[in-house]
Structures are given as structure tokens and as C-alpha cells.
UniProtKB/TrEMBL annotation:
Subcellular location(s) of the protein: Cell membrane
Bilayer disposition of the protein: Multi-pass membrane protein
Keywords tagged on the record: Cell membrane, Membrane, Transmembrane, Transmembrane helix
Taxonomic path: Eukaryota, Fungi, Dikarya, Ascomycota, Pezizomycotina
Protein's name according to its UniProt entry: Fluoride export protein 1
Amino acid sequence: MAGESAAQNRQSSSGAYNAPNDYAELGDITQQPIQRETPGETTKTTAQSARQAERYDSGTYDVPQDSSNLDETESIPPLQELSPCPTQGQPRGHANFVRSDTAVEPEPIAQEAAQKKTSELLTSLYTHSYLVLFAILGVLARLGLTALTRYSGTPVIFNTIWANFSGSVVMGFLAEDRKLFRNEWGTPTYDEVIKRAKQKQKDEANGSGSSQQMDVDLDAAKRAHLATKKTIPLYIGLATGFCGSFTTFSSFIKDVFLALSNELKTPGWSESPTSRNGGYSFMAMLAVIITTVSLSLSGLFLGAHLAIGLERVTPSIPFSLSRRVLDPLGVLLGWGCWLGAVLLAIFPPHNAWRGQALFALVFGPLGCLLRFYLSLYLNGKMKTFPLGTFTANVFGTVILGMSWDLAHVPVGGVIGCQVLEGMEDGFCGCLTTISTWVAELSTLRRRSAWIYGTASVVTALVLMIAVMGGLRWSDGYSKLLCTSTTTLASLADDNKFLDGLIRDIEVAVNALGRSTTIH
């Protein structure tokens, strides 16, 4: 079965990005399709598809086979059709998908597209550039949304829930959407199969055609379409880079520990929480876990429903635009923005910017790239336990706990505190991910999902208690130097500048007065 899947991936990518062989194990699509209502358009002929591929293609990508290990590109489980009427003759809950293990080869890509390939090195450059760019954008989105949702009287005091929910919504949309990357490698193969299926459905209503063949065609076509999206660098950047960096598993576990240790402070209240019974702390810990997991899973399915509901108005990205314009622009913006963040961290316009965002932007892409490679090489080891995502989440949680401890002891100075905050928000925030984690939970079988989810939370929390618990229950946490001292230091620097400017003005005025008196 694995050999057939790899062969199908190789056949599908014959006209695509020239990627390394390692991408084949990035989590093959095993979920069922969603049958959607599509306009009753006639199917384009093979000659038209060939001409369209020739028109769109400007050189296809050589994509690594191991890209299938990226669980950010997994399919969302079957969703009920957003239709007022169920399919005739089937129960409402199962009217819109059919479980079928029979694979049907999709229509081969035109030979014109297969003749042109982007080199493996160039494809890797595009992929890494998108990861860097969208990691920076994901960090900015997470920090911005966290700041917006930190206010007095908030109903949920751990405000990372907003970033985790929003990132999961985007992940669900990308996984279920078939319009953004409709053109795939220049030929809208999946879209044409859906049109043929619609025509077959009409023929069946007239007494001809095979409904079973229609379902099998859609199943195989969706698998091929999802496998194709895994080879598009822009899609990898959006799913792995943006969604993975927008959400954070390490901050989620940190909030769980703070709730357990009664250190989870309410925004707007400067004093520490009042002491409470250990049973209440246990309930607070469960509240953080249940709220985060349930809302993140809900966001994932909400995004999938949005992709179906907005299908008619969702635009498609032309392959020629992606290949000729967006890919080179991604290289320029990705590495340029990262270099700009490094330069701003060295020469900041304001000292407080380092701790607020700059160091997080510097360290964020490193965490994203590390997670990418962990998923690439470890997720394929165990099909029922995504080892790469598990390793990234647990390792990132430990690093965040160490950074938190070092930042909350009165040593290291302001710059050291800002670097540690950048490690927490940037490196650990991008290394760990909730969106991929809940996507994996939704696609695994029930038993495997419970084992994987429980092992992830329990292992990370136990290690977090071991790292952060010693300082919490011994000396306690000190105030961050980069939140109180930074402001004072900045004001002192500003006062020194103003004092020097005033002295220079006084000297100039005195000199002007003396020269006037002499004349």
C-alpha cells in the first residue's frame, strides 16, 4: 500500500515542483472526501487541459517526496454537506461522503507541463523563503492578537486562546479549500473531475451512469489534489509557516502550569492571585486544557466549513502568477524581512521594541524551520503517532520553561531579559504548534488520537513542572526586568538626550550673545 501511494505521488508530481524524495512521508491523505454542489458545467477535453497547462506553466517544481509528512497538509475528516436536503436514499449524517478504499488514478498532467521542471534547489529555496516570511507574519499576528485581547474584565484570562483558535480556523480553511490552489500545477484536475461527477449524477438521475464510480472518482481526485497541494511552496508556507507560527503549544502548556500553580494573573490586576485550595488549582488546570483543546478543534472544523461555504466567492491563484511573481517575491521578502528584523534588533529605534517584537521576529523563523524538518523526517516513522510534531512541541515547551525561569530571576540585565522573551514568543512559539496538533488529532483514529493527545499534554506538562516548578515553589518568580526597568531606562535615556540638547542650545545662545556684544 505504501509503495502504491509513493508511486501515485511520483506520478502526480511528474509535472510539479522538483522536491527531495523525503517529502513522500509527510502524512499521506487517508480521510474521506466531501462532495460539494458545483455548477453544472461541461467537462473540458484533454486537448483543452493540455493547452491550459501549457499556458499556465512556466516551469514546474521538483518537490521532495517527504513533503507528505507535513501534517499541516492533512485532510479534515468528512464534513456533512452544507445543503438543506440530504442525498436521496442515504442517512442525513452520511449522505455526503462514502468510505471507499479503492483508488482511481487521476487524469495525468499534460506532457507540456511535465517537460518543464524547476530544480530541486530552487524549489527548496522557494519553500524555505515562504516558511521564513510566513513565520514572521505568524509571530506578528500572534503578538498583535494577544495584545488586543489582553484587557481588564476579559472572560478568558489566558489570552493565547485567541491565537490558537484563529490559527486553527485558518488551518481548517486551507486544508479543506479547493479554490485557492484550484489550478494546481497549471491544470485544474480536481475541478474537472468534480464537473464530470456532477454530470454523472445527472445521468444517474436519468437512469444511466454509476453512482459508485462517481464516489470513487471524487475520493481519488481529492486525495490527488491534497497530495498536489503538499508540493506547492506557497501552500507549505501558509500551512506550516503561518498557521504553525500563529498558534503555540508551549504557551498553552505554560498557561496550564500557571493555572496549576495559581500564578495565572488576571489582566488589569497588578497583585498576585489570592491563595486557594489545591483542588481549585486542579480544576483551573483542567479548565485551561479543556477550553484550549475544544476551541482549537472547533476552530479547525469552522475553517473547513468556511472553505465550503465560501467556495463560490473564493478566488483562485493562477499558476503563472504563483510561479513567476509570488515565488521570487517570497524569496525577496522572506530573507529581506528577516535581515531587517536582525538589523532593527541591533539598531532599534526604541529600546522597548527589542522585547516587544524584534527578538521574537529574529528567533521565530529558526523555530519554524526546525519544526519543518522535524515533521519532515520524523512524522513518517509512526503513522499512528506523529513523532515529529510531538518532538517539536515537547522540546519547545522545555525551552520555554527554561527561558521563563531565567527571565524571572534578577540577573542578566534588560537585554538578557528581552532575548529570553524573544526566545519564548519567537523560537518556542514557532517551534510548537496547536493548529497542526489538532489537525492530527482530527485525522487519527479515535484510540490513536487519545493516546497521541494525552501523551503530548501529559509529557509536556510533567517536563514543564520539573523545569518551572523548582523556582516557583522555592524562591518564587521575580518581576521581569524588561517590563519595569526598560521603561525607566528608556525614559532616562530620553532625559539624558534632552539635557544634552538643552545644554547645547544654551552654549549656542551664549556664544551668539558674546559675538553680538563684541560687534
